[in-house]
Amino acid sequence: xxxxxxxxxxxxxxxxxxxxxxxxxxxxxxxxxxxxxxxxxxxxxxxxxxxxxxxxxxxxxxxxxxxxxxxxxxxxxxxxxxxxxxxxxxxxxxxxxxxxxxxxxxxxxxxxxxxxxxxxxxxxxxxxxxxxxxxxxxxxxxxxxxxxxxxxxxxxxxxxxxxxxxxxxxxxxxxxxxxxxxxxxxxxxxxxxxxxxxxxxxxxxxxxxxxxxxxxxxxxxxxxxxxxxxxxxxxxxxxxxxxxxxxxxxxxxxxxxxxxxx
Length: 262
Prior knowledge:
By secondary structure, the chain is α/β, with parallel strands linked by helices. It contains seven helices and eleven strands.
């Protein structure tokens, strides 16, 4: 085996695909993590798995990059037929996606359980990015007033909030008091002041806000404690992974009640 290829594979790898990611795959938040930030091009995921094999890959991406992520998974699945893939698209910052994935993979090595935790937390997090300017932002689209304010030398910055109601605002954003607030910045104070929290934790930035949003800034996420979930129903008869719905999230077969694995 080539020296660059690891002999053993991990059970669950969490990959965040982003067009703003560095050209080379980056583990997050530390070098020995099983959470990786990858570019969302068609070949990067397949190439990454050649060097870093995994039995199951959970792929998270922003909703606007879903098409690119599905293509990347199709290419990777063809190159690595023994690897299972599951995809989640969400309106969230790249930091939010990475933090949710990191939390889930640290709690459990079971792919189905990790995916259920990811699903639960993506509905509960508050994530976004603080930007100095919004002139180059397109999603969510700033209003005319935001563009005019961006031209002022003392604009003071903007909060871009993702989720069910994506928006650009200069008002404080409420975060759950029990949530841990992560800020990807050398200086987290602008974000802390903007969201009204002093108890923030500084973490490594998974992507450049300049590349992702067109301005200097810092991503943030308010990450609640992981919920305790009931065990998944009996598993898929093909891949034996736990499955809540009628379609397996990993091998994508349609399951009827009597076909579930005991």
